[in-house]
Amino acid sequence: MLASGLIAPSAFADEEPQDATQTVQDVTERPDGVSAQITAKATGHRVEDLSLRTATEQVFANPDGTWTSETTSAARFKEEKGSFVPLGTDGELTDAASPVVGDGTELTVADGKDALGDGPTQDSVVLAELESTGEHEGSTMKLGWEGELPAPQISENQATYADQV
């Protein structure tokens, strides 16, 4: 009875075995420091320790047993379901009525319908508004434009306002 449990089911008999060397060479990140260091030594290239990743830092195990930390002043990762994942860059400006949603922000551009006084001064309109939706939700930055603006032409992720200098 035990022997029957060790026999490969026929459904798996036709599968090609994976090339373990190729799989190991492709590994660039591991869940902890021990496995990152072992993988780095085995592959000859650095491997990220995901347990040390933050919004602004990545830590890599090097094949020679040392560690490298790469830190940035701006966030490159966001926390999602208990781990840090790369920030998306898929936000795209398609029309002025729809905000561009990024990771933790929304960008809205003027649609040509604001009245003078809607901007930061009595003679301006809001050209663009950047609003935080993440950790600092509620923070807003508005960029004003002195005078009125027509509806923009949207093309290739850019808003162009005709006859404006």
UniProtKB/TrEMBL annotation:
Residues 1-45, 132-165 are annotated as: Disordered. Residues 154-165 have a biased composition (Polar residues). It comes from the Bacteria. This is Uncharacterized protein. It comes from Glutamicibacter soli.
